[in-house]
Amino acid sequence: MNIDVVAALVMGLAGSGHCLAMCGGLAAAMGYQRSPMRLFWYNLGRIISYAIAGFIVAAAFFSISKVHANGLVYLRILAGIMMVLLGLYLFRWNRALLWLEKAGSYLWRYIQPLTQKLPAQKTSGYVFLAGMLWGWLPCGLVYSALTWAALSGDPFSGAGFMLLFGLGTFPAMFLTGVFSQKLATVLQSSSFRWIAGLLLIGYGIATLFIAAKQL
Amino acid sequence: MSQVDVSMSKPEATLANEKEACFHCQQPVPAGFSLHVEVLGHARPMCCYGCHSVATTIVEQGLTHFYKYRETKPGELPLIPEELANLEDDLVRYDDPDIQREFVAANANIQTATLAIEGMTCAACAWLIERQLHHLNGVKKVVVNASTERVQVSWDAESTRLSQVLRAIHQVGYKALPFQQADLEASYDRKRRGYIRRLGVAGIASMQTMMVAFGLYFDDIDDTTRLYFWWVSLLFTAPVIVYSCQPFFANAIRALKARTLNMDVPVALAMVIAFIASFYATVTDTGDVYYECVTMFAFFLLAGRFLEMQARHKAVANAANLMKLIPAIAERQTTDGWEQVMVKYLETGDVIRVRPGDTIPVDGELLDANAWCDEALLTGESRPVAKSQFETLYAGSINQDHPITLRIVATRQDTLLAGIIALQDSALEAKPKFVRFADVVSRYFVAATLIISTLTLVSWYFIDPSKAFWVTLAVLVATCPCALSLAAPTAMSGAISRLNRAGILMKQSALLESLPKIKTLCVDKTGTLTKGKFSIIRSQYNSDHEELLLMKIAAGLESYSEHPLARPFQRLAKAADVTNARNIPGSGISGVVDGTEYRIGSLSFIKQWHPEFKNALAPANVFLASKDKILAEWQVDDEIRDDAEETIAWYKSRGVEVIMLTGDSNLRAHTLAQQLGITDIRAQLKPEDKLKAVRKLQEISPVLMVGDGLNDGPVLAAANGSVTFSSGSDLAKSSSDVVILTGKLAGLRRLYETSLLTRNVIRQNFTWAIGYNLVILPLAVTGQVGPLWAMLGMSMSSLIVMTNSLRLMRNAR
């Protein structure tokens, strides 16, 4: 139990307004919104992909902490910056993370053709696979969460962090499909974004503060 | 990829770009960013690479119809929905007679309407509204029903107007509008959405505050981080206090205004105190915070209220659904043919036409020779019923056969169907003893809670001031009698819903409470144990003659009689031609068929021809004879209901004494009683004798009377509980507590079983609720239970009571 768990969930939750508009629209277009089961499988696939990404990134940065004693502290500073950027992003200052998304869209070019091979809406298995592929969409929110996963120390807690982040986005993505559009308007309302953004920036600054003291 | 044009041109930084919204997610496109996807023939702006990828894929997979049909919402919505804003101005509209005709019943100058009230939650609200309306000049009668959230109000049209009544209710803080079945669904939906929104806010906040609280419980965190976490929790808890908890505060304030107490008083108090203390701690960086308690308390309480509301809705939904089936448009006869007209504009005396398969919109008398109707909606009987000319057809029944014309006798609120619905509603109105008991007990409980909390605070202040606050908070939360006040009403709603679905209408829900105590069941014979329709039970024909010929003669002769005993003969065979027919009332018919004179009728009538005749068929009561000999003997009697024997045996097996009270002759009554296994028979009773008999029986034990609604009125009123079998127009007039619409005696058994079940459920609920409160109280007072656990325990207790009551709704059939 530590702060990072809370941070992961908050990041997911705070960002879920964005998730709704972007991925929710996709899910709606694909017709997943029509049944709670499909929506569930789609989102599960998406979250699993996040966890895999978390595992990979954390594994890659695992070595850094071995090589350089202060490596993790620098990473923590990076993560703090990312957190602040994410907060700004929620304030509608989208530019903050666009460069990251752009980087991600190169990766997406390789994955996107795969999505076309899947039948549009078939069994839960296909929906799950589709969710896994869509999990790699270029998304600033995911990337900033990944920087946190990177500094978690070992690959498994990296995967765990991303899993929690995914879970944070889950209620909004899932519940709006099942209950009502109203929740979406709450999550997208400026007041909510404002609070969430402020919160994330606060987290980010706190992290930077702690990391700076450790240097 | 050929038809997709993905342009990724370099940004041309224009000011216009800034206001542009992303075509996919509808959020603003950042200034100077330009990325487009061609969708539906235009290059559409995108806000980020993610949206760009998604939009491209959607286009490539040919799913662009999504963009065409999706709902585009305005981007900015305030968190708090606008309420009551323009309501005042709309009220005057309700004074328009044209609008009023749909929901106001007028009797001379006194007008009566049912109003739906929003925001009413408890007995205190009912009291407040009642008092407010009684102050209004011209208001004659006010009946407030807290469980259905309706007010029935009568006013003098000369001294006040409906809009003034509505305004008076608004002034005390409730929303009142004319009640219409169609609106019920809409207002329920609105309420449900409101609850979900509040639940959503409380749910998200409680998740966050819990996570933070766990972090604070288990980790060694430096003071800066801890303080930061406190502020985070404060940010999340604030919307819960301001928005989610608003119903609790509103109720508590209303109760205090009415100078009474309800369970929301300690709830609101606990939340406000906990929040203010936490807020103070956060600002000054001292003491403890209870944010997670506040948010989770709100979440669980809201969840409980939400479930209760759904249960209550189910109980009234049955009735409301009936009204939905009435069509909105009818065909009315005018001087130049037929015209389409709204059903609400139909008047008594109009002639309308109903096509086969259509639902009859009003009550009316049949102008055609005959018709077949499916009255399943009214009686639960799915077999079509034959109707002959000038018989009344009821709104809600379905015309089965050919187009028919009707002359309207009752419209809208006056139809039988509306009557049934009103009955179902009013069943929830009367408060049975155990509901009143719970009201009173929970009021005292609340008072006790507040006193004990104060004492706890004072004592702990002397023992250990550092603990005084949270112990008091725990006491306040743990002892809140939420479960107690839910115990009876939820069970009653469940039971009434269960019975309604089985075609049993409760006019007095109090009967559910008294039924298990009843040890004597009195039944009327005709129309109760029997169907009230005469038919030929047994027959014996003279073997020297052809049976069919005798039947034809009997049918021919009886066609001259109006007596109910003659009816089954008229259907027996094709009537023979009869000449010189004479009807001798009280005796029979005589007439000539093919030159021979015959008589059909009672034993004494036949004995005039054959003085020494003794009937071969012992219970026979109709005979056919010529001057020479007896030709046929019939036993014509009321048909026994199929399930009569079974039901009576069941009641006897429960130790209930079954007594038959009838005005019929001794012999007939005994024959029937023997068949059914009834040993105690009181025959040849006049209505006043029946009344005396019931009074006498009541001296020993309470009596349940089952009888015919019209003739047995006084007896039914005198008995401790009364049941009638009704169909048709006598329904609303009957003076019984329960009406069984299905015409099946087995309904009596279901009624009894349900009342036993309800009593058990209520006892379990009370035992649990009181027991829990008594156990938790000493624990909380002594500081063994923290606020969080107290809150979880209280919520669980309420949910257990709710779930237990909901069992009544299951397996209704």
UniProtKB/TrEMBL annotation, chain A:
<feature type="domain" description="Urease accessory protein UreH-like transmembrane">
    <location>
        <begin position="7"/>
        <end position="205"/>
    </location>
</feature>
<protein>
    <recommendedName>
        <fullName>Urease accessory protein UreH-like transmembrane domain-containing protein</fullName>
    </recommendedName>
</protein>
<feature type="transmembrane region" description="Helical">
    <location>
        <begin position="71"/>
        <end position="91"/>
    </location>
</feature>
<feature type="transmembrane region" description="Helical">
    <location>
        <begin position="126"/>
        <end position="146"/>
    </location>
</feature>
<feature type="transmembrane region" description="Helical">
    <location>
        <begin position="6"/>
        <end position="32"/>
    </location>
</feature>
<dbReference type="Pfam" id="PF13386">
    <property type="entry name" value="DsbD_2"/>
</dbReference>
<feature type="transmembrane region" description="Helical">
    <location>
        <begin position="158"/>
        <end position="179"/>
    </location>
</feature>
<feature type="transmembrane region" description="Helical">
    <location>
        <begin position="44"/>
        <end position="65"/>
    </location>
</feature>
<dbReference type="InterPro" id="IPR039447">
    <property type="entry name" value="UreH-like_TM_dom"/>
</dbReference>
<keyword id="KW-0472">Membrane</keyword>
<keyword id="KW-1133">Transmembrane helix</keyword>
<keyword id="KW-0812">Transmembrane</keyword>
<feature type="transmembrane region" description="Helical">
    <location>
        <begin position="191"/>
        <end position="212"/>
    </location>
</feature>
